[in-house]
């Protein structure tokens, strides 16, 4: 379901919760979504160049995903997050499946994740994403790595 202004508070709360452990671990204060203001999240939800969805599990809001259509039938995911108590339940896998069906014209998907977070890398690789070779060092503890998934 598309996110609206009425979802901003709960989505911001979940986003901060989901990304706070990574912020504490890597101290990536300039890039971590836990540092994003509620106003910035509201702007992202309202913007017309991307689609922001609420993730539900058993009728409860448990996360969010932003889908950014690009040129040449490419689409970017940034960010996706699930509340801590709902992680590891297969929700993200199901969300990716649904999003890929919704954006069926997409031939190439892209996203970034933290190279040092092996669980995230494993999830994306399990979903068919491959390392794209682009890496950005954020600090001495953390590197962002790009992933691509090409569809026929």
Q: How many β strands by DSSP?
A: 6
Please tell me the total number of domains: 1
Helix content: 25-40%
Q: Which homologous superfamily in CATH is the superfamily?
A: Gcn5-related N-acetyltransferase (GNAT)
The CATH topology is what?
A: Aminopeptidase
The major sheet is characterized as: 6 strands, mixed
Shape: globular
Organism: Viridibacillus soli
Protein name: GNAT family N-acetyltransferase
Domain N-acetyltransferase: 9-152
InterPro entries: Acyl_CoA_acyltransferase (IPR016181), GNAT_dom (IPR000182)
Brief summary of the model shown:
The protein is an alpha+beta fold and 152 residues long.
Notes on the protein architecture:
- The chain has helices at residues 8-26, 38-46, 91-102, 118-126; strands spanning 51-57, 60-69, 74-82, 108-114, 130-139, 142-150.
- The protein has 152 residues and is of the alpha+beta class.
- The protein has one domain (5-150): Gcn5-related N-acetyltransferase (GNAT) (Aminopeptidase), CATH 3.40.630.30.
- Helix 1 crosses helix 2 (38-46).
- The longest helix has 19 residues, at 8-26.
- The model has no long low-confidence stretch (mean pLDDT 96).
- Pfam families: Acetyltransf_10 (PF13673).
